[in-house]
Design a protein that fits this description.
- By secondary structure, the protein is mainly beta.
- The protein has 2 domains: 4-101 and 210-222, no CATH class; 104-205.
- It is 14% helix and 39% strand.
- The protein has 4 helices and 17 strands.
- The strands form 4 sheets. It has a 5-stranded mixed sheet with strand order 1-4-9-6-7, with no helix packed on it.
- Strand 13 (164-168) and strand 14 (174-181) form a beta hairpin.
- The two termini are 33 Å apart.
- The relative contact order is 0.25.
Amino acid sequence: MAASEIIVQSMTSAGLEVTYEAANALGNYFTNNGRTWLRVKNADTKNHAVLIDSPGACDQGFYHDVTVQVPAHTGSVDSGPFVSSRFTDSSGYVDITYIASVGSSTGTVTIATDAALAALTLSEDTKVLTFTIDTVAKNYTIAQAIITKATFLTALNAVLLTAGTASFDTSNHLKVVSTTTGTSSTVVASGTASAAIMGATPTEDTGATATPTSVTVAAIKFA
């Protein structure tokens, strides 16, 4: 068995009912016109990740592949379009493989502004926010003096060190991701400040092996 082709579907002004196919554990590929997108759906209980091969250089002159993280139970994650000079191989295809993914913990509390962050550090001053990453607890003590989102992330990442990385996602929720991959990659939030900053039930997803269990894919091109 080998990698298999994803048949590209065309988007029109009348719309497109996207058809998905099961991800091939050995990889997939699709034709690329420079205006083609990849859509990945993950119905698994674990995160998955897709590696998009880049046989050409980026606009800065470097060669580097692109990794797309697809959270558990997500509706879908889109990636693209793929610049032909960078992503199309000598046969005219974009090549993708499936790689081991990271564990993560994502809060449900929206922290959209520095003022919102400052209000939380004031109310939770001296309380502890703990992230247990791959069974190792990292304890961050909330400080009232931290009043911006940027300085909060700097302080938290200094505690996480090489075990994980903290950021705010596109919904302004605090997210901590492990730096390891596979089924042992986990992040669990706890501590006296956890409910205020991460919410009562943060989304905590375990990493997965490279096998794309319950993952489906589609390629969509625009004229």
